[in-house]
Predict the 3D structure of the following.
Amino acid sequence: MNLHPNFEEVVDKGVKALNRVPIIWLELADCSGNSEAFIKSTNPAIEDLIFDYISLDYHELLLMSSSGDQSESVLESVIREKKGEYVLIVEGAIPLAMEGKFLRIGPKGETGLELLQKSAKDAALVIAVGSCALDGGVVAAAPNPTGAVGVAEALNRNDIINLPGCPTNPINIVGTLLSYLMFEELPQLDRFNRPKWAYEGRVHDNCERRGHYELGEFVKEWGDNGAKKGWCLFEMGCKGPYANVNCPTMKFNNATSWPVQAGHGCMACTEVGFFDKYANERVYKG
Ligand code: SF4
């Protein structure tokens, strides 16, 4: 988060408060990639994260000891008894076409929209995790037959924190929760409601292949000599110049790698409309 060492005490206080905040994690229309990335959290490790640092009371896909009716009653009791205290994390898009019937979840067959509205109403904070939760993402790709939208649009609210990414780096999820607890207010956000500390830097500016871009050394074909030498992927469709996020500096899986390091161009998955606007075009034409 680029905080000065003087903040050590504040960070410590925030970490201690973190596991007292109940968290509900909804899984709506998506591929569950953010949950997958989250369980691969290494710093802190996922087992430390869920046992020591956060109170993940309800996660309907992966990380719950309860199942069936019991898990539903956990959700209901957090919503009922922890009004104004719990944090709602939402992964996935919300289909609105056909009154939301494209997505039904749980024993009562609630639509994704009903589940979201019910869970968001009394949450202290709503965090939309992943590109689908930002604006529908891949689920909303043209022609968007399910009428999928993101969390802010579905709830018609402008106070949702967006952490887009396909997937979102778990470091950015934990960091956002921490900053909320440390400073008791929303972090500074950009025009897409993304925390500036994580989404301010341009991928292109921090990319290890940037020197090759400046020298005009581009990969022209997968597997060519330039690819072997780690040259710039711009001509292979890399959208790093149009994307803002800390992937090149934070990386994934214990900071092992990130897409460009692994040889695949950036798809600008943190940007609004990324799938139709960037991912499908080899060269972005503006
Ligand atoms: Fe920029 Fe992509 Fe080339 Fe990296 S690989 S320098 S992000 S265009």
Observations:
- The two ends are 31 Å apart (CA to CA).
- The longest strand covers residues 22-27.
- The chain has 14 helices and nine strands.
